[in-house]
């Protein structure tokens, strides 16, 4: 007699990028059951990140095609592998792209959130369990959330507190958490510090909010889009600076506003290579620190040597240094307590069928902060 409880392949809809920079298509795909350590998730919400665009236009040595994009999302577990212990069918969950085993050298060191047992997978390793038109479709990172069903290694999955709306939870799976953690986890932040945040998208607003909560005395928000001014101030920016309104470099504008000193900390969220040196030069000589959070479309930037030998510190970060099991629940709690209002960041909503409108149209609109996909 057949075992009707054994998970079977599911036919559903997913967004597929067949070639680099080619228009996205909604295709019928087949999603295999999870293996012993994976879970299969029915997606309820996903969101669109600029990193999705970067990977879509990147050369194939970074991204493999055909590809199902998307790395931010939340849903409900439909089936689990036999070795999965802490998750069960019916759990509502967030899908992350970094893991945390708690036991490897990296996790035990307390120095990084990048687990060596469950690493960040930038390019699909060829083990995707999704197929379309007779061929395997590669994943973006370890997830590919722009599909009605996704199969994910269970360690990259975190349960959602039932008090947290899933539409808000998906915003914590990359952008906002990256910015928030870039201040909270990557800096030894002192109350009264001065901060400059370059780029006021979701990542930048996360950095702004963390700076406010940790007691910054001044938060400079650097943004070329004046339509983001009110949102920036609502999240904690004290001084909104649009560098397009001046012929002076950003670093000079910040120094002039800080008595010639510069800020204690600069958080670079744009990924614009030409702004790297401006971010570093915006900080104080001898003690200034800059954290890089933006993902560049350009992979090379010339680093000016002089600002570095003046004692400044430059640090790279992934997911803002946040550990998904140890740290992320603390951010969730602040959202539940209304210290953080993630709902304010959602400016547009689309269905999976309208993905190109969200991806290619809404993301370019000046009033856009975050586009979410409702399944």
From TrEMBL:
Oligomeric form and interacting partners = Homodimer.
Cofactors that this protein relies on: Zn(2+)
Q: Which UniProt keywords apply?
A: Metal-binding, NAD, Oxidoreductase, Zinc
Give the matching InterPro entries.
Answer: ADH-like_C, ADH-like_N, ADH_Zn_CS, ER, GroES-like_sf, NAD(P)-bd_dom_sf
Instruction: Name the lineage.
Output: Eukaryota, Viridiplantae, Streptophyta, Embryophyta, Tracheophyta
Record Pfam families: ADH_N (PF08240), ADH_zinc_N (PF00107)
Which residue numbers delimit the Enoyl reductase (ER) domain? 19-373
The UniProt entry's coiled-coil ranges are none
The Swiss-Prot or TrEMBL record annotates one GO molecular function as: oxidoreductase activity
UniProt name for this protein: 8-hydroxygeraniol oxidoreductase-like
Family note: Belongs to the zinc-containing alcohol dehydrogenase family. Class-IV subfamily.
> Does the UniProt entry include the keyword Iron-sulfur?
no
């Amino acid at each position: 007699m057949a075992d009707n409880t054994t998970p079977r392949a599911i036919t559903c809809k997913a967004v597929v990028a067949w070639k680099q920079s080619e228009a996205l298509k909604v295709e019928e795909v087949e999603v295999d059951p999870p293996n012993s350590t994976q879970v299969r998730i029915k997606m309820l919400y996903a969101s669109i990140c600029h990193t999705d665009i970067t990977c879509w236009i990147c050369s194939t040595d970074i991204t493999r095609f055909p590809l199902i994009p998307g790395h931010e999302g939340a849903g409900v577990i439909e089936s689990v592998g036999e070795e999965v212990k802490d998750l069960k069918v019916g759990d509502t969950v967030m899908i992350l792209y970094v893991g945390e085993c708690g036991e490897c050298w990296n996790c035990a060191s307390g120095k990084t959130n990048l687990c060596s047992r469950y690493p960040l997978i930038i390019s699909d390793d060829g083990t995707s369990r999704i197929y379309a038109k007779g061929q395997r479709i590669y994943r973006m990172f370890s997830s590919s959330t722009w599909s009605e069903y996704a199969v994910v290694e269970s360690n990259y999955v975190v349960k959602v507190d039932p008090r947290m709306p899933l539409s808000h939870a998906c915003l914590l799976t990359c952008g906002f958490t990256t910015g928030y953690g870039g201040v909270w986890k990557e800096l030894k932040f002192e109350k009264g510090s001065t901060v400059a945040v370059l780029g006021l998208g979701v990542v930048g607003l996360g950095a702004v909010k963390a700076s406010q909560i940790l007691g910054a005395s001044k938060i400079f928000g650097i943004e070329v889009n004046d339509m983001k001014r009110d949102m920036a101030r609502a999240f904690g920016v004290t001084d909104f600076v649009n560098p397009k309104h001046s012929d002076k470099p950003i670093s000079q504008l910040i120094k002039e506003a800080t008595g010639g000193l510069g800020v204690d900390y600069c958080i670079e969220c744009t990924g614009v290579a030409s702004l790297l040196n401006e971010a570093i030069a915006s900080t104080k000589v001898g003690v200034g620190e800059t954290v890089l959070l933006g993902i560049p479309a350009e992979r090379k930037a010339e680093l000016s040597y002089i600002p570095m030998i003046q004692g400044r510190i430059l640090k790279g970060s992934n997911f803002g240094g946040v550990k998904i099991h140890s740290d992320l629940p603390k951010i969730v709690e602040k959202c539940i307590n209304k210290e953080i209002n993630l709902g304010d960041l959602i400016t547009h909503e689309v269905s999976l069928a309208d993905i190109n409108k969200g991806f290619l149209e809404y993301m370019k609109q000046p009033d856009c902060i975050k586009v979410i996909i409702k399944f």
